[in-house]
Design a protein that fits this description.
3-stranded mixed beta sheet, 208 residues, 6-stranded antiparallel beta sheet
């Protein structure tokens, strides 16, 4: 069984073709018969899933990278296919996307997409959270619910919602160990502490 994991990376290739659209307001109704998750959260770290035409897109002046792309042949005529991306609900920037370490099926505890040959569709989901660059903890907005503390990670210079000490995540968020890893000077691997992210489930994505 095939598995697809869409973990976004920062892409800044000069002259890269981008799909340009607006997110004012963020549209959550796709042109195809796919139900996009909308948790109703107004948390500053909450994301919305939007349909995008290209792998790299521009939404309200922000570069947004699709976490899964090449779905359904785009216009239904066998083209390159469209995709889906996470966008910060408040800032409309692209959401930071991650997953859990190790192979596993698509689930709130895992993430990724599984191909179903019986229906010729992809099913699964993506972990994500709105990213805020920071220098100190004071740069990080506080979550609206839960007890997780927003802090500036020295590993990524971005805000994280830590839950390693048993803190509760904001409503509609789950606590995971991120697959993000850093190789230390002595060759050992370090991972950031467990953190709160959202899990956006998508099912029935046509393979072609």
């Amino acid at each position: 069984m095939k598995r697809f994991i869409g973990v976004a990376v920062a892409l800044a290739a000069a002259g890269a073709a981008c799909g340009v659209q607006t997110a004012q307001p963020i549209a959550v109704a796709p042109p195809r018969d796919i139900v996009l998750p909308d948790d109703g959260s107004t948390d500053p770290y909450a994301c919305a899933v939007v349909e995008v035409p290209d792998q790299i897109n521009e939404i309200d002046g922000h570069t947004v990278v699709a976490f899964i792309h090449g779905i359904g042949g785009g216009d239904g005529l066998g083209g390159a296919g469209g995709g889906y991306a996470g966008v910060c609900k408040q800032t409309h920037e692209g959401c930071w996307q991650t997953g859990t370490p190790g192979p596993c099926p698509g689930s709130p505890d895992c993430g990724g997409f599984l191909y179903d040959p019986a229906t010729n569709t992809w099913n699964g989901g993506q972990h994500m959270a709105c990213q805020y660059l920071c220098a100190t903890d004071a740069d990080c907005p506080a979550p609206t619910t839960g007890t997780a503390h927003a802090a500036c990670s020295p590993l990524t210079n971005s805000c994280t919602l830590g839950c390693a000490g048993g803190e509760t995540c904001p409503d509609s968020f789950v606590c995971i160990q991120s697959a993000l890893a850093f190789v230390n000077s002595d060759g050992t691997v370090s991972r950031p502490p467990r953190q709160c992210v959202q899990y956006k489930e998508l099912s029935g994505l046509p393979a072609n």
